[in-house]
């Protein structure tokens, strides 16, 4: 027998000679029905539906001056706050709470430094904080050579993760600027892959802000096409008169029809954009939409858990899928709302039961 070191996995033939199992080398990449994979951790939710999750990229697109920066400012403001709620913003839009004060990193490739500082002040103001917190890191990299963008981004993310014990979210305002030509397939694919790797490496969500082509809803160039293919979702920001609104374009964790077109506009007194209802809702407010979602979920909860029935999380999600005839991700969102809203309680046996003392406080 050869004296060469054996590298498992391997088996032996009838003569006792080692036979390497070449296929087993790739088991770490294989997915089966029993592969232990955790449910997506939401970073952004709208009306209780998961929009963006950790280890994924998410695209926010729109025409120039459509309100993209205002929408992003709302989300970043919530990310650096203590509650994850958007103050004076869009009702039903919720960013995951950041109580551990993990880094919230923002890279701007487009704005002049003074304009970016004005945006930072707006973000801090609407977050409810009195000054810019240490864990909010906003960088202007427009002055750098494009070839340095990824290198600097990598260095900042690594250092921020070490200092703050992780990264809550990364915001790339001008993702297409990381390459010289947005129509170059090879460079576009590499740039989007780079953002994906950041999301996975730092167990975070990477939000990429991209312009659409003039007069079109298509994101710019091959870079935009690759964002469409690889993003966990895309939300467009559009404008109509003095109002802007969000429009779901492609969502992997929810259906486009699950998300309303939430309106927002600039408020001179507050100095930032605020929510102003739902487009085409004929008076239906975002608050009413949220309340209906919660009430419907409570009715569903009673149907599943009434009669002192208890379920594990997995079995409860199965029951929701059966009752609603929906997919696993939608059922998971309903279960999360039940648990977070106190509709169900977890017992010592790890099973969930109906909370008979639950009161809808809306």
Keywords:
9-stranded mixed sheet, 2 domains, Rossmann fold, alpha/beta, 33% helix, 16 strands, 362 residues
Short description:
The chain has helices spanning 68-80, 113-126, 146-164, 185-201, 221-230, 286-305, 313-324, 328-340; strands at 10-12, 18-20, 42-46, 49-53, 56-62, 93-95, 103-108, 136-140, 167-173, 205-211, 233-240, 243-251, 262-267, 272-278, 344-346, 352-354. By secondary structure, the chain is of the alpha/beta class.
Describe the structure.
This protein has 362 residues and is α/β, with parallel strands linked by helices. It folds into 2 domains: 242 residues, P-loop containing nucleotide triphosphate hydrolases (Rossmann fold); 67 residues, Orthogonal Bundle (Arc Repressor Mutant, subunit A), CATH 1.10.10. The chain has 8 helices and 16 strands. A 9-stranded mixed β-sheet has the order 8-7-9-10-5-11-12-13-14, with helices on both faces. Strands 4-3-6 form a 3-stranded antiparallel β-sheet. The longest helix is centred in the C-terminal third of the chain and has 20 residues. The chain is globular, with a radius of gyration of 23 Å.
Given helix and strand content, the structural type is: alpha/beta
Percent range of helical residues: 25-40%
Quaternary structure state of the chains depicted: single chain
**CATH architecture name of the largest domain:** 3-Layer(aba) Sandwich
């Amino acid at each position: 027998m050869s004296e060469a070191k054996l590298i498992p996995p391997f088996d032996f033939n009838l003569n006792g000679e080692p036979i390497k199992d070449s296929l087993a080398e790739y088991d770490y990449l294989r997915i089966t029905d029993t592969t232990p994979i955790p449910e997506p951790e939401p970073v952004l939710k709208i009306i209780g539906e998961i929009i963006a999750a950790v280890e994924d990229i998410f695209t926010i697109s729109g025409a120039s001056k459509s309100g993209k920066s205002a929408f992003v400012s709302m989300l970043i403001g919530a990310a650096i706050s203590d509650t994850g709620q958007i103050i004076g913003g869009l009702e039903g839009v919720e960013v995951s709470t950041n109580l551990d004060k993990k880094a919230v990193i923002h890279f701007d490739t487009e704005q002049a430094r003074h304009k970016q500082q004005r945006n930072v002040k707006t973000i801090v103001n609407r977050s409810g904080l009195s000054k810019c917190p240490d864990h909010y890191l906003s960088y202007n990299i427009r002055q750098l050579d494009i070839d340095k963008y990824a290198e600097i981004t990598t260095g900042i993310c690594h250092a921020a993760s070490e200092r703050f014990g992780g990264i809550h979210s990364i915001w790339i305002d001008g993702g297409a600027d990381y390459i010289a030509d947005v129509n170059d397939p090879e460079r576009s694919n590499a740039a989007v892959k780079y953002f994906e790797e950041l999301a996975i490496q730092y167990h975070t969500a990477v939000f990429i802000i991209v312009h659409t082509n003039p007069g079109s809803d298509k994101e710019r160039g091959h870079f935009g096409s690759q964002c469409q293919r690889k993003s966990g979702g895309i939300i467009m920001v559009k404008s109509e008169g003095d109002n802007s609104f969000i429009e779901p374009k492609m969502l992997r964790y929810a259906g486009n029809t699950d998300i309303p077109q939430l309106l927002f506009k600039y408020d001179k007194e507050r100095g930032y954009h605020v929510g102003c209802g739902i487009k085409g809702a004929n008076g239906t407010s975002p608050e009413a939409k949220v309340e209906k979602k919660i009430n419907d979920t409570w009715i569903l909860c009673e149907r599943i858990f009434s009669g002192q029935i208890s379920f594990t999380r997995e079995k409860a999600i199965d029951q929701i899928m059966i009752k609603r005839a929906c997919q696993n991700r939608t059922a998971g969102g309903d279960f999360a709302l039940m648990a977070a809203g106190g509709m169900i309680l977890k017992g010592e046996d790890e099973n969930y039961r109906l909370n008979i003392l639950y009161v809808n406080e809306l």
